[in-house]
Amino acid sequence: MRKARPAVLAMTLASLTLAVAASSSSGAIALKRAVAVGSSATAAWAPAGSATVHPGVQVFTEGAQCTSNFVFQEGEAVYLGQAAHCSGTGSSTETDGCETGSLPIGTPVEVTGASRPGKLAYNSWLAMQGVREPNPDTCAYNDLALIRIDPVDVGRVNPSVPAFGGPTGVDTVNGNLGETVYSYGNSELRLEVTKLSPKQGVVVQNEGGGWSHNVVTVTPGVPGDSGSGFLDETGHAIGTLSTLQIAPLAGSNGVGDLPKELAYARAHGFPGLELVHGTEPFNADPVEAFGGA
Prior knowledge:
The chain is an alpha+beta fold and 293 residues long.
């Protein structure tokens, strides 16, 4: 399920949900179809209104389309986050990062709005396999990858989230069921209808020892939204979209816990990795923020 098929793009979101539910008996299916705290120092970011590379742009890893989440930085290196499973070589139902294969570090990744491909610089699945990670919850839910932006394209980047602004920092759900969350999906299945991209929802369940949070949004995340970033009510980055849940609540999405994912990356090769704060203030109303979606 790695190559995009034009016929799939014509499916309605409703029929897609039914097809996914019918194709798997597992509790979650990866959304591969269709990667701290920090500041914006050291890089001269493009203005938010004209930047062509930013959170939410589509990224393509050997034909598999996903949605980027946030901008990260370590020293002079600038990264765009995506889901680790976006470079996975298994099927969409193979979601255990300690067992499923992945394309190697250095794999080119096409970044929408960039003049040159980025390169896969970190993949939590490869990192876990390299150290033989023993924690099953970490294996199941640690789903972050980093795409290093080519230096010639850094001037095209802005770290602000379209429609909402921010992020204002990093935080975790901390078991706050019912907490309001915000996200920006950009699947090809949305057929470039940008009004469907901003999403608001609530946290309905925590699982995996805090590694994952199930959320329900309007509209739900669909294949190709994988990797989308999630913000809390104050604009803090809290997670990245990883799975479409079949059970216990069909149509909900599994969101990986960003603080845990960042801590793992720092402990496995990226000790100075930081989330870059948005240059635009957070605004939970997408009609007002950025002039609407």
